[in-house]
């Protein structure tokens, strides 16, 4: 009875995960559903020669990620805990979209704030790509991914430099960031896909991006570089051919998920969020108190001012209790 219960629960959790992340099934046979899995080497080579992105820094606007690649990246990101991990993505291009078919981890040394690839990682990268081509997988590397455990999906100064270098020599190239801590807390994958602008390019005013909280100790790094890259729209897909591999990988993911509930497993993260909010409140109150009219503001009014200040400068939602 227990194995059945486990299988049933895992299957239900997998379906919920797919619904939460809006994963589109490509089971129905059609020209569009078949073409996404077909690699046209000649068409890709022609696209590389034309380089339409060279004249338009905002050329690529969309990313399509296979459910298998997404789950691989999430499992890898979660395995690192509070340490950043890194890997590469393989796929192709289709007009203004980059399609990610697969992903693989890299043996890199990471810390809680950065991850760096060494010589052995580059050797592994080359060997893996060559072996893939020998096995009939012709997709090229189209980007890299790494994790930001607990502090959101954006590019740091080092990330921006890395991505700029990659776009200079390996176009088309994409940067993906996954937050495994927030993924476990929310149930939905916390992910972002980005491309950097050419050096010296001044982007037009971007529309307001989706809300996310940035820790106080990361705000400066975020603010300095946030105009040097832009986010791409992300969608996910799967096919019946992926189902068996997806089931096997899901069982591994599901076992790890069972071992820790969001409430208990993310206690440190929640405590850190509360501490970070307290620091932002204190800093906002101090800045308002030292402003020209700070001493004249009544305490109740000052709380409202602090709430507005936080929502504007720190991406903290307006506090309803104020």
Automatic annotation (TrEMBL):
What's a Gene Ontology MF term here?
Answer: metal ion binding
Keyword annotations for this protein, in alphabetical order, are: Hydrolase, Metal-binding, Metalloprotease, Phytochrome signaling pathway, Protease, Signalosome, Zinc
This entry carries the following GO cellular component terms, namely: COP9 signalosome
Which cofactors is this protein said to need? a divalent metal cation
Its domain of life reads: Eukaryota
The Gene Ontology biological process terms listed for this entry are: COP9 signalosome assembly; negative regulation of photomorphogenesis; positive regulation of G2/M transition of mitotic cell cycle; proteolysis; red, far-red light phototransduction
Ranges for domain MPN come to 63-200
Q: Which InterPro entries match?
A: CSN5_C, JAMM/MPN+_dom, JAMM_MPN+_peptidase_M67A, MPN
Q: Which PANTHER family match?
A: EUKARYOTIC TRANSLATION INITIATION FACTOR 3 -RELATED (PTHR10410)
Instruction: Tell me which family the UniProt entry assigns to this protein.
Output: Belongs to the peptidase M67A family. CSN5 subfamily.
Please report the name of this protein according to its UniProt entry. MPN domain-containing protein
């Amino acid at each position: 009875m227990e194995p059945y219960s486990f299988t049933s629960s895992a299957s239900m959790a997998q379906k919920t995960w797919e619904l939460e992340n809006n994963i589109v099934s490509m089971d129905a046979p059609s020209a569009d559903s078949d073409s996404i899995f077909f690699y046209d080497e000649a068409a890709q080579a022609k696209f590389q020669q034309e380089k339409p992105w060279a004249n338009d820094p905002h050329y690529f606007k969309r990313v399509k990620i296979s459910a298998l690649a997404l789950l691989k990246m999430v499992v890898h990101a979660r395995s690192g805990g509070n340490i950043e991990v890194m890997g590469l993505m393989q796929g192709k291009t289709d007009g203004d979209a980059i399609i990610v078919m697969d992903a693989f981890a890299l043996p890199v040394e990471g810390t809680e704030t950065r991850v760096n690839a060494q010589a052995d990682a580059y050797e592994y990268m080359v060997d893996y790509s060559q072996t893939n081509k020998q096995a009939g997988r012709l997709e090229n590397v189209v980007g890299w991914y790494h994790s930001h455990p607990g502090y959101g999906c954006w590019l740091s100064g080092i990330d921006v430099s890395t991505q700029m270098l990659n776009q200079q020599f390996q176009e088309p190239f994409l940067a993906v960031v996954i937050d495994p801590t927030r993924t476990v807390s929310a149930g939905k994958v916390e992910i972002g896909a980005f491309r950097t602008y050419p050096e010296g390019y001044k982007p037009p005013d971007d529309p307001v991006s989706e809300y996310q909280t940035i820790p106080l100790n990361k705000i400066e790094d975020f603010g300095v570089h946030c105009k040097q890259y832009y986010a791409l729209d992300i969608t996910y897909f799967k096919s019946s051919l992926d189902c068996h591999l997806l089931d096997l990988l899901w069982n591994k993911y599901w076992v790890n998920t069972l071992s820790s509930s969001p409430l208990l497993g993310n206690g440190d993260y929640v405590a850190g969020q509360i501490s970070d909010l307290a620091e932002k409140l204190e800093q906002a109150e101090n800045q308002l108190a030292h402003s020209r009219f700070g001493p004249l503001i009544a305490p109740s009014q000052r709380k409202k001012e602090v709430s507005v200040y936080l929502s504007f400068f720190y991406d903290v939602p307006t506090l309803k209790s104020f």
